[in-house]
Amino acid sequence: MEMEHTEKEKEPVMAASEELSREVKTLVSAQDLHSLKQLQLTILGRLQDSNAVLSHFNDFSENCFAEISGDISRNTRILKSMKSDLDYIFLKLRSMKSKLSATYPDAFPDDSVSEVIDRRPDLEMPK
């Protein structure tokens, strides 16, 4: 009995939706619909072309990165080693300068004895 009740309720809804569909069709001309469909197909084609180009570029980039990733990691290790070596050298130079200025106060002009500001950029800190 419930099944019959829902079927009877669906009939007016179906008729109303068909009528609405017919009315909407009269609002837009067939030529406009055809034009919209052609534009959608053109856009779809362009998007598919763009997708293909991007996929090709991604593959190319992946291959290039695979070729140079070893060099990049090796150079990174070298640069980190060089930085630690330079830090050590500057630390030793500061220590030697402070010892020299304590032993020979006249060895350096007054402005060089004052606190030296390290103006080297910190390459490990992101900007």
Automatic annotation (TrEMBL):
Alphabetical GO biological process terms: lysosome localization
Stretches assigned to the KxDL domain: 25-108
GO cellular component: BORC complex
Pfam families to which the protein is assigned, alphabetical: KxDL
InterPro entries xrefs: KXD1-like, KxDL_dom
Superkingdom classification of source: Eukaryota
Similarity field: Belongs to the KXD1 family.
Protein name according to UniProt: KxDL motif-containing protein 1
